[in-house]
């Protein structure tokens, strides 16, 4: 079977934004070298639909995103649901925010299919046995500013593509598109945590998850914290896996949800400030969905751990 090219799929998907920028509230421009820049929230208005497409671009268009309302306890929030039949490639090989690109004093967080060409970071692609060979590249930046020519030059060089074949989509965390896109990482967060506690991501065949999109707030730290809380206290992930040992699988699932962390139980902004705003001081076990459900399609057994925490969601979201 021909290998899936997440860059080629995503490049085609960008046409929705490029052909209807007014509909999606985006602004399209070009860098000096000819790379296409899609602003979905820096100066542009962006919105939920732009955020939906940004999330699908992050997934290398190897996943589908739906927006709607879901209940969390007695409260209903707008929510993002992600579905993929290529979990390792779409989530770890594309969506994972694994490319930190320095430009001057700032660091832009890069995700999306361009990583699969540049192999950022290489160990991820070794583990999932995937690499994308494509003469086109798409990268999504979580940034408060549009990319400089210097940054674009670094991406072009790392991907070995012509500048005019590079598309860069940008949205700040605090924008509506950004909040949607970051919350849309719920499945990726779940798969990454499962991998961390011992599950080979290649055995995950199908995955789906949802989490609430937090209310907007202008303060970057608070917006970032709310997107974390959306997943840590409101995210649910379902995975269908092929696994030989149900006892071991049950143990892995039990170690996965955020509530196993010693830092669990407070809004993320409080945890972040108590850690002097240093992510490395925060218990890594915290970064996981609130609830995880894993179905072993080899045996028919299903395992669940964790739970939604509506109380902390309400506190975090400013109620």
Task: Tell me what you see in this structure.
- The chain has 319 residues and is α+β, with helices and mostly antiparallel strands.
- Helices cover 36% and strands 24% of the residues.
- The protein is built from 14 helices and twelve strands.
- The strands form two sheets. It has a six-stranded mixed sheet with strand order 1-2-8-7-6-5, sandwiched between helices. A six-stranded mixed sheet has the order 3-4-9-10-11-12.
- β3 and β4 (75-84) form a beta hairpin.
Q: Short summary of the structure?
A:
The protein is α+β, with helices and mostly antiparallel strands. The protein has helices at residues 6-13, 15-19, 21-24, 48-58, 87-95, 115-118, 122-128, 149-159, 176-183, 186-196, 220-234, 246-254, 268-274, 310-316; strands spanning 27-30, 36-39, 64-72, 75-84, 99-103, 106-111, 137-142, 166-171, 204-212, 236-241, 291-296, 302-306. It is built from 14 helices and twelve strands.
C-alpha end-to-end distance: 51 Å
Order of helices and strands: HHHEEHEEHEEHHEHEHHEHEHHEEH
What share of residues is helical?
A: 25-40%
Fraction in beta strands: 15-25%
Shape: globular
Q: How many DSSP H or I helices?
A: 14
Overall radius of gyration = 19 Å
Describe the sheet with the most strands: 6 strands, mixed
Poorly predicted parts:
none
Number of strands: 12
Query: What order do the strands of the largest sheet run in, or round the barrel if closed?
Result: 1-2-8-7-6-5
Average pLDDT, rounded to a whole number, is: 96
Structural class: alpha+beta
